[in-house]
Amino acid sequence: MKKLVQILFFVFIFFSCDKEEYEPLVFENPEIDLIIPDNFPDLNNSFYGNIPTKYGVELGEKLFSEKRLSIDNTISCASCHIKTNVFSDHNKIAVGVEERLGIRNVPPIQNLAFLQFYNWDGNKLQLENQPLVPIITFEEMDSSILEVIGKIETYEEYLDLFYKAFGDKEITPDRIYKSIAQFEYTLISANSKYDKVMRNEGEVFTENEAKGYQVFKDKCATCHSTELFTDQSFRNIGFPVNPSTDEAGRARVTGLAEDAYRFRVPSLRNVEYTAPYGSFGQFATLKEVLDYLDNGVLESDNLDVILKENNNRIPLTEKEKENLIFFLKALSDNNFIN
Amino acid sequence: MKNIKKYLLLSLISLGIISCSEDSIPVANDVTLEFNNTFGSETIILGDATSVEATVNTSTSGQAHYFSELKYVISNISLIDEDDNEFLYHVNDLDNGATVVNQAKTETLQFLLSDIPTANYTQIKFGLGVKTALNTLDEVSFPNFYAAAGANDTAMHWEWGTGYRFTKIEGFYGDDNAELSIHTGSTVEGEEGSYTQGVDAYREIILDLPVTANVGSASPKIVIKADFDALLSGQTNTIELGEGNAAPSIHHAGNMVLFVDNIGGNGDTDVTGMFSVESVQN
Fold it and tell me: What residues contact residue A91 under an 8 Å CB cut-off, 6+ apart?
């Protein structure tokens, strides 16, 4: 794929030269040379329709931090998706303009190019379809896309970036969505200690980490599978239930009773930095999550079969929990958050 | 100056004569759709938690209920004439072809269809909600409908689904006046006909007119009754609000279809849902 893209790029340049020699070179916006980890799952198909470019990403990053996206110019995407927290925050549930509360925990933004479902309930399948949601949601930014365009189109630096990214200065909703998605596609985390151990780059697990890795493989890896540490399935694991009447888990989208309070299995990469945990921040620490799973979860008809087969528990000794947490911290990618 | 006046008068007169002498039927005229939201035969009066005036309905399963808020979107309207020609009314243009009916705002209970070709119409079709292709909260293409639906006192944006709310019903039910809150909307992803996930809450309604609506010299009014008794006691589902059957508060796709099928029909054997044509006034 990469090769093909490179070839197309050259073809394009040749064409441009042939055609209009005296026009400025249109295609000065090269694709970003993303390092795609070999062992990661397939990219989401929509990535290929919106491959990150130098200026697309630059524009997206600028928009990501743009407070004018909100009605009162007080919050940007980056206000809740804070880099040092793996682009999430430490609140239990999201806080929008005027301190309005959402219903769920802010999801981290990492390795999204490899996800097939976005958000806790997987209601979006293409990243480009997501940015509008926080912009217009009352509890988030409470603005509208025309309001946003009206604000940013007065800034020469934006017009310049839209020109560089898309070939002319027109600011359209699609271009806003695409550039933000491009920026997010570049947020790839694959450089944790775990990765270095697996790639034989000279690092080795400590004894605790190695034991924790074994516990992980025995008791966690069915759901937190693949190198993303999520199988991207939706499961009800009997966590305390969100009292919001807007919440139904995956059933919010599908309408199916069997999907009630099922949520997308979250990645465990950088999990050290994304507390609190659970779809509405039910647990303050990783230890609390493990204690809860060990003590027993809530019964329900559609409780995940793995839990059902184990008396609604994932039994863990204190030592196992300790080692597991050591291992989970080995999934932290400090370069990614700094 | 005097001359000019004379000429003006003359041309006015001649214009008058021409119009009179033509005595023709215009090629098009207006049709007014009027929505009468009822429980049975009684037009609904909204009321808050302490209201004594609100129209109270009792469901088949014996639950009393009344509404404090009642809104729904009508779009994709077409009229079919006696020769089976279908006239599509701005079906791909929400700004001109869609409206939010809001029981609290009298002016929204009528929707004027302008420039309807002269013919005798026998049937009306419309959508309850917004068809998937247009259900994207596209503010650039349809700024007026986007603004009207999103106004603070209307609140018909379903933000998380990046679509419109198709119905929004708030109210109270049961002996202890518990809150009732039913929102419907689509959560589908993908192209119509091959959705990859989600629930399509859009319903197409087809109603025969009891007498033909004669558009031409006249501009008829079609009064459409929406009998919200069907919400809990519909052709498709008998719903008892509460745990174990249907949650009294539906802000998502779970259980939503029960209500959608009742008021909008199941799209198969029932294409009228709660709607009927009360009268046609030519």
Answer: A80, A105, A106, A276, A281
